[in-house]
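Figure 2 data, in text form.
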Amino acid sequence: MLKAYLESSGMLTQQEINACMEGIKSKTLNRLDFFVKEGDPCREVAFITSGVFRSYYRKADGEEVTYCILFPGQFIASYASFITGNLSREYIQAITPAQIQTISGDRIKQLSENSLNWMRFLKNMAEQQYLELESRIFQFQRESAAQRYAHLVNHQPEYLRQIPLQFLSSYLGITQRHLSRLRKGVVHAGTMQTRG
C-alpha cells in the first residue's frame, strides 16, 4: 500500500521508490497498542495500511484529550519529537487492530541527502501536515460538533463505527451523551431520506 502511495505521488522514480522500500519494516499492532508514548523519542514515521489510530495528550488532571484520528493511507508520527529529537508530548495509539509500515528517521535522512526528488516529496508531506493541522483548527473554530461529525460520516463511514464513543466524543469536543444524540439524529435523517 505504501509503494502504491509513493507511485501515485508522481514525484519519485521507480528506482527511488524501490530504494525506500528496502528500508521499510512491517508491524502489527493490537487494539490499544502504542506507536509512541509521551516521554519517549519518536525516531520513525509509519504509514497506516489498516486500522485506526488516535493521537492524544493528558491534561494536568489526567483527562485524555483525543485531538486527531488517523485512518489507512495516512502517515503517523509524533512530528515535533521526530523533527527535533526531543521527547514526545503525545501518545499515538491503535484503537483497532492495525498494520503499519515504518521507516526510520536515519533512512529518511539518507534518502533525502541522495535525492532531490525525495527532498521535494518530504517538503510536500510537511506542507500537507500543516494544511491538515490548519483545517483541524478551523473546524473547531468555525464548525459545530454536528458539522464535524457529519464530516466524518461523509469521509470515513466504514471506520466510524470502529471508534469507541469516548475517543470520538473527545475528538469532537463534546460529551458522550451529546454524541449519542448526534448519532441518533444522523440515523434518523438517513431513514427519512431513504423513505423519501
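Caption note: Residues 61 and 170 are 15 Å apart (CA to CA).
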